[in-house]
Write a structure and sequence with these properties.
With about 300 residues, this protein is mainly β. It folds into two domains: about 25-105, Sandwich (Immunoglobulin-like); about 110-295, Glucose Permease (Domain IIA) (Distorted Sandwich), CATH 2.70.70. The protein has helices at about 5-20, 125-145, and strands spanning about 40-45, 55-60, 60-70, 70-80, 85-95, 95-105, 110-115, 165, 170-175, 180, 185-190, 195, 200-210, 215-220, 225-235, 240-245, 250, 265-270, 270-275. The strands form three sheets. Strands 8, 11, 12, 13, 14, 15, 16, 17, 18 and 19 form a ten-stranded antiparallel beta sheet that branches. A six-stranded antiparallel beta sheet has the order 1-4-3-2-5-6, with no helix packed on it. It has a three-stranded mixed beta sheet with strand order 7-9-10, with no helix packed on it. The chain binds zinc ion (ZN).
Length: about 300
């Protein structure tokens, strides 16, 4: 989905950092804009020259991240995978005035993946497992909607583990022929015991051991941007701890529902699971992306 003009715009934004005066905020790189379900819409909100108030924005009743780049304010909106394509409305409050800002979401067909799982206990859940999984899903949902106001948020991530990209975001999965929720993260193929690092500066929002996700760390980067690191073998951080970009969070593993060791990494923005690749500059140069239709991740 890289149009030439989008790439050119991105390059211009990057170059502008070197050419122009000090940006208003410490982090100025925007994620790649991709107006599709599971993508990120970057919506300009007007001048961010000194003296202008930072706008506040909402999608429904969920606050939305605002940042500045090249002397402009931008809303950076996470678009849920189940969002209906078409015109949508962002509420924008500047000073005392609130207005509606339209933006468009285009349709996207994600590929399908059919998986055969031999361990049926992970597909056909017992009543006890089902009850546990449902409790955890609602607890995780609450974490994903957490909002911690922060002065600024680093929107440029590092890949949290060194390995081949083995499963991309948005793939529509079928386990033993039955439709399951789409793949809401990115899989990195790594052996158990591989260091897993924070993709950006933040605070540890929660750690847990979940039926599906296994041992998981949630890092809150501020302003509704949260990352999740799943299936870990070991967790080395505690809730509330501040972590820097690249800091060790734990070691990869295969806890929870995983047929083999790998890191499942998710990015949440204003409560929506979005494509992590949009936050990694130059990820397309990591040519190791393998569309593995044969195995689950
Ligand atoms: Zn995964």
């Amino acid at each position: 989905m890289h149009t030439f003009s989008a790439i050119a715009l991105r390059i211009c934004r990057r170059l502008s950092l070197f050419v122009l005066a000090v940006p208003l905020l410490a982090y100025a790189s925007l994620p790649e804009s991709s107006n599709v379900p599971g993508g990120v819409a970057v919506v300009p909100l007007g001048s961010a020259l000194t003296g202008t108030n930072k706008p506040q924005t909402w999608l429904g009743d969920q606050p939305v991240l605002v940042t500045s780049d090249h002397d402009q304010w931008y809303a950076v909106i996470g678009l849920p995978l189940d969002m209906t394509p078409g015109s949508h409305e962002l509420s924008v409050k500047i000073g005392d005035e609130t207005k509606a800002q339209q933006f468009v979401v285009n349709p996207k067909d994600y590929p399908e993946q059919h998986v055969t799982l031999k361990d049926k206990s992970k597909v056909e859940l017992s009543a006890a497992d089902l009850a546990r999984a449902e409790r955890e899903i609602s607890a995780i949902k609450e974490l994903k909607h957490h909002w911690r106001p922060a002065q600024d948020t680093d929107l440029t991530f590092i890949v949290p583990a060194e390995g081949q990209l083995a499963g991309r975001f948005g793939v529509r999965r079928f386990f033993n022929g039955e439709p399951r929720s789409p793949h809401a993260g990115l899989d990195v193929a790594v052996a158990s015991g591989t260091p897993v690092k924070a993709s950006a500066q933040g605070q540890v929002l929660a750690v847990g051991d979940y039926f599906f996700n296994g041992k998981t760390v949630f890092v809150d980067h501020g302003n509704g941007l949260i990352t999740m690191y799943c299936h870990l073998e070991r967790i080395d951080v505690r809730t509330g701890e501040t972590v820097s970009k690249g800091q060790l969070l734990g070691l990869s593993g295969k806890t929870g529902r995983a047929t083999g060791p790998h890191l499942h990494w998710s990015v949440v923005l204003n409560g929506a699971m979005v494509d992590p690749e949009l936050f990694i500059p130059g990820i397309s140069s990591l040519t190791a992306i393998a569309e593995q239709s044969r195995k689950t991740k």
